[in-house]
Amino acid sequence: MATMADVARHAGVSVATVSHVLNDTRPVLPHTRQAVLDAVEQLGYTPNTLARSLVTSRTRSIGLAVSAISNPYFTEILQGVEASALEHGYSLLIADPHDDPAHERKVVQLLHERRVDGMVVAPSADPGGLVAYLRRHAVPAVFLDRLVDTRAEDGPAFDQVCAESAAPVTELVTHLAGLGHRRIALVAGLPGLSTTSERITGYRHGLAAAGLPYDERLVVHGDSAATGGERATAALLSLAVPPTALVTANNAMTIGALRALRERGLSVPGDIALCCFDDFAWADLFSPRLTAIAQPSKEIGAQAVRVLLDRLAAPERPARTLRLPCTFVHRSSCGCPELPPQHPEHPPQHPEQPAKGTAS
């Protein structure tokens, strides 16, 4: 097995120079750096990660704490995190907090004890214990997807990366209102999450923009889960005057809503129009195909890693919050004519639509 000394002899440099190249601890001339990398490749040298971490106090590993890893949305985020981490020479340790504040605090501590250099965390609805632990131990961390109000006198305490949540829901509501709907319901997410409150805000803005009154009976929490979405949709359909259109605030609740509609023999969009937040791989395989808001999931994950690495390089830099834009993916579950399949990155423009006369 090749050693660092072997690499140094092969490249014609000192062992210290090899160390600086591999650990990125000092600038090295480009031709010297390339000679070292060529020697590493030719000799098949594998750095001793443990020894390196003892010298640099870095393990070149990142902890990722994300609930519902089986959710396609978070799976794509994970792919973005992993790809960006590997691109920058970092490994990934993954834990699932299960959206439970106590378990969240425990898994973050376990990741910290594995000496990760920093963490990317999608916080729960009650992240007080998480925030206290990260602050107490000065753990570099980026909050992902769900924002946490951690502002101190000098600004936010943690970097955060998420997608826009309010404006896309406003767009869904105004689109449905433009099709003639006057009773538009929202299946909202888990109370306490920033995504839930922001999407409710977007819903209310959409109603106001369309000149429609807000009716609290038309907003039911589905707790960001399929079973909750099914229960919430059933409750909405049981109203004395049920909605004619439905907006679901994440992909899991969309599945639950579709189950509830199927159980009642209701068709989409014939009996009720449906738009959803979160596009997913099979959304255009349903009949009708689902009109949805697509989040840039992989880019959210990749950006979170980049922001974390910026934090590691400059611990004193001001914290920042990045919001990435979403895409309206226009299909036919909203009641518009069927359109050819479109890639979410290149959606068609909204066609002018006459009122359907479905108001109630």
Q: What does it look like?
A:
The chain is an alpha/beta fold. Helix content is 41%, strand content 14%. It has twelve helices and twelve strands. It has helices at 4-11, 15-23, 30-43, 49-56, 72-87, 101-113, 128-136, 166-178, 194-209, 226-237, 251-263, 297-313, and strands at 61-65, 91-95, 118-121, 141-144, 159-163, 184-188, 219-221, 245-248, 273-277, 291-294, 321-324, 327-329. The strands form two sheets. It has a six-stranded parallel beta sheet, with helices on both faces. The longest helix is centred in the C-terminal third of the chain and has 17 residues, at 297-313. The chain is elongated and about 80 Å long. It starts with a helix and ends in a 31-residue tail after the last strand. Residues 344-360 have low confidence and may be disordered.
Count of DSSP helices?
A: 12
**Radius of gyration from the CA trace?**
25 Å
> In what order do the strands lie side by side in the largest sheet?
2-1-3-4-5-11
Q: Overall 3D geometry? A: elongated
Strand count: 12
Taking the alpha carbons of the first and last residues, their distance comes to 76 Å
What are the main properties of this structure?
alpha/beta; disordered C terminus; 14% strand; 12 strands; 360 residues; six-stranded mixed β-sheet
Task: Provide the fold topology.
Elements: H1 4-11, H2 15-23, H3 30-43, H4 49-56, E1 61-65, H5 72-87, E2 91-95, H6 101-113, E3 118-121, H7 128-136, E4 141-144, E5 159-163, H8 166-178, E6 184-188, H9 194-209, E7 219-221, H10 226-237, E8 245-248, H11 251-263, E9 273-277, E10 291-294, H12 297-313, E11 321-324, E12 327-329
Parallel strand pairs: 1-2, 1-3, 3-4, 4-5, 5-11, 6-7, 6-8, 8-9, 9-10
Antiparallel strand pairs: 10-12
Helix pairs in contact: 1-2, 1-3, 5-12, 6-7, 8-9, 10-11
